[in-house]
């Protein structure tokens, strides 16, 4: 397939900082209009990857194409085709939401009516003339997404878009993300929340120590893990609950002993979550 047919194509992307390897030769592709989740523990290389894919940091070696542009040699065209929302919020707090957008619309030479379109997309209509400092964190995050959408990017990079938000606000952001996907925008999303990744992403890559260690749909990742991780949950007569892995010899022995001693009240199969898979693969939890 041609590189321009992919929304994102990374080939052997590698970046070191003074000898420290941050991203260790990763390759992956994202189809247009999909939500791609990029997961990893702290220091795994997520931000470095985003910075390379958005043309802010040159790879030490390897190449990447985003929205058909080479991230190293076509940075001007790249900027016009992508939107980026980083975790750090940089809004003009004294200005209204509308004024913030109008400022950037002038900068990008985007027509004014586009401001109303993005306000509607991120559901801020009615609150757009209030000062940003009175906005909730969720509203500020939505405004940042609106700002990144002004120039109609094909690919949107969202770095931890729901971090620190309460469940209602987080759900509003997720609804916006799903809506954008339906409009054909490709989303590259980093998140610490496994349920969010499971709910939103068409594909997931798990990065650890600079390398992609798993890459698939959430469903297939869970199915593979289930094959490798046959676990059951026991409830004992004293109401204690324990999880045992059928592939572990010690656990098998314990299971027989508990049954023989008639300690077991009930046995249930244990559903594997993406969090289980992540811990198994990286030895660490995503939630710090
Ligand atoms: N400017 C820099 N100079 C030196 N080392 C760096 C620099 N930026 C990142 N690193 C190192 O590169 C590795 C990957 O960092 P990166 O910020 O990409 O990880 P991350 O997955 O985004 O982490 P987090 O979830 O904590 O933001 C880490 O070991 C980090 O210490």
TrEMBL record:
Task: Give the E.C. number(s).
Answer: 3.6.3.-
Q: Name one GO molecular function term.
A: ATP binding
Name the PROSITE patterns for this protein. ABC_TRANSPORTER_2
Which InterPro entries is this protein grouped with? AAA+_ATPase, ABC_transporter-like_ATP-bd, ABC_transporter_ATP-binding, P-loop_NTPase
> Any idea where this protein resides?
Cell membrane
Arranged from A to Z, the UniProt key words for this protein are: ATP-binding, Cell membrane, Hydrolase, Membrane, Nucleotide-binding, Translocase, Transport
GO CC terms on record?
plasma membrane
User: What is the similarity comment for this entry?
Assistant: Belongs to the ABC transporter superfamily.
Q: What domain of life?
A: Bacteria
Q: Where do the ABC transporter domain residues begin and end?
A: 8-234
The protein's name is Putative enzyme
Organism, by scientific name, is Syntrophaceticus schinkii
């Amino acid at each position: 397939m041609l590189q321009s047919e992919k929304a994102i194509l990374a080939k052997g992307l590698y970046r070191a900082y003074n000898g420290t390897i941050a991203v260790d030769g990763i390759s992956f592709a994202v189809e247009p209009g999909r939500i791609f989740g990029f997961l990893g523990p702290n220091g795994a290389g997520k931000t470095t990857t985003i910075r390379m894919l958005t043309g802010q940091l040159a790879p030490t070696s390897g190449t990447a194409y985003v929205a058909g542009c080479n991230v190293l040699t076509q940075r001007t065209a790249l900027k016009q085709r992508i939107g980026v929302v980083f975790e750090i919020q940089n809004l003009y707090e004294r200005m209204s939401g509308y004024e913030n957008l109008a400022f950037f619309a002038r900068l990008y030479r985007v027509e004014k009516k586009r401001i109303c379109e993005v306000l509607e997309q991120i559901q801020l209509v009615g609150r757009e003339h209030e000062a940003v400092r009175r906005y909730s964190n969720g509203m500020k995050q939505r405004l940042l997404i609106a700002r990144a959408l002004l120039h109609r990017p094909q690919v949107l990079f969202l770095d931890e878009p729901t971090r620190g938000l309460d469940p209602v606000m987080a759900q509003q952001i997720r609804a916006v993300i799903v809506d954008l996907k339906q409009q054909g925008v490709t989303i590259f999303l980093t998140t610490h929340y496994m349920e969010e990744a499971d709910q939103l992403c068409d594909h997931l890559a798990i990065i650890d120590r600079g390398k992609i260690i798993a890459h698939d749909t959430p469903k297939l990742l869970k199915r593979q893990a289930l094959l490798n991780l046959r676990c059951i949950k026991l409830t004992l007569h004293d109401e204690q609950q324990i999880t045992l892995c059928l592939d572990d010899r010690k656990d098998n022995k314990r299971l027989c002993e508990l049954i023989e001693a008639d300690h077991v009240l009930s046995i249930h199969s244990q559903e594997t979550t993406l969090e289980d898979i992540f811990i198994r693969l990286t030895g660490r939890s995503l939630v710090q």
